[in-house]
Amino acid sequence: MPSGSEVRAEFTDPAQNLAFDEALLREVPAGPVVWLWRNPVCVVVGRGQRIAREVRVDDCARDGVPVLRRASGGGTVFHDPGNLNVTLVLPGPATRPLEMLGLVMSAAVEKLGLPARIGDRGIFVGDAKLCGFAVFRTKDVLLAHSTLLVDTDAARVGAYLTGPPPDPKPLDSHRSKVASLADHGVRLPLIEVEDTVRAAAAGLLGPLPPREPTAGELKRQRALLWSRYEYPDWHAEGRQRS
């Protein structure tokens, strides 16, 4: 496998983060790419989900919490600065798309001193979800990403997401009890958590030297902002601008 890298990029706007996340896939890297990032407070729904079924829309509007849509599948997630996002982009076909992401994140959680269990769409410690997973792939590239609750308040997560609907549909989120690293007694500076994830990824994928975003990735990000992530219909209904 060609050598990989860790891209170091920080954006303050959640739309920019989601656009850059997809841009890493669209640029078809030759080797593995890892990106660690965080969003301000927002709610992010999966590609095909219906906001009304997933989100307490009135509560989000009251509190100024934006609701956005990402390109990958999976369930709805509450983001804030205490929730670390880990993006893994792997070139080539993937018959088991979540396998490497699960290995990386479970290794990181175990390095942090907790017993990790890979369960339905995420990693659990005991009966509480610590990491959620989602994937998006083309015929040439896989993007798999995870959330890692560092010190997000579990009660706040539930404040903006709906409960299980009475008429479950295939694309509905699978609601689980959640607990952060802090809830499990792991209270570390964010940089130490990030370095633990970096070490776990490098242990499985080989060296991942840091680099700046490429010109192609930033150009692709701008194009995706125009067609999707700065277009209200994308977030509301999943329709992109043509």
Overview of this protein structure:
The chain has an eight-stranded mixed sheet, sandwiched between helices. A three-stranded mixed sheet has the order 4-3-5, sandwiched between helices. The longest helix has 16 residues, at 190-205. With 242 residues, the chain is an alpha/beta fold. α1 crosses α7. The chain is built from eight helices and eleven strands. The mean pLDDT is 95.
In short:
With 242 residues, the chain is α/β, with parallel strands linked by helices.
List the helices and strands and how they pair.
Blueprint: E1 5-7, H1 14-26, E2 33-37, E3 42-45, H2 51-54, H3 57-63, E4 67-69, E5 77-79, E6 83-91, H4 99-111, E7 117-119, E8 122-125, E9 128-137, E10 141-149, H5 154-160, H6 190-205, E11 210-211, H7 215-229, H8 232-237
Parallel strand pairs: 1-2, 1-11, 3-4
Antiparallel strand pairs: 2-6, 3-5, 6-10, 7-8, 8-9, 9-10
Apparent shape: globular
Mean pLDDT: 95
- Report, as a whole number of angstroms, the end-to-end distance: 36 Å
- pLDDT < 50 stretches: none
In angstroms, what is the radius of gyration? 17 Å
| Tally of individual helices | 8
Oligomer: single chain
Largest sheet: 8 strands, mixed
Beta-strand content estimate: 15-25%
The H-and-E topology, N to C, reads as: EHEEHHEEEHEEEEHHEHH
Strand order of the largest sheet: 7-8-9-10-6-2-1-11
Structural class: alpha/beta
Assign a percent range to the helix content: 25-40%
Keywords:
242 residues, alpha/beta, eight-stranded mixed β-sheet, three-stranded mixed β-sheet, 11 strands, 33% helix, globular
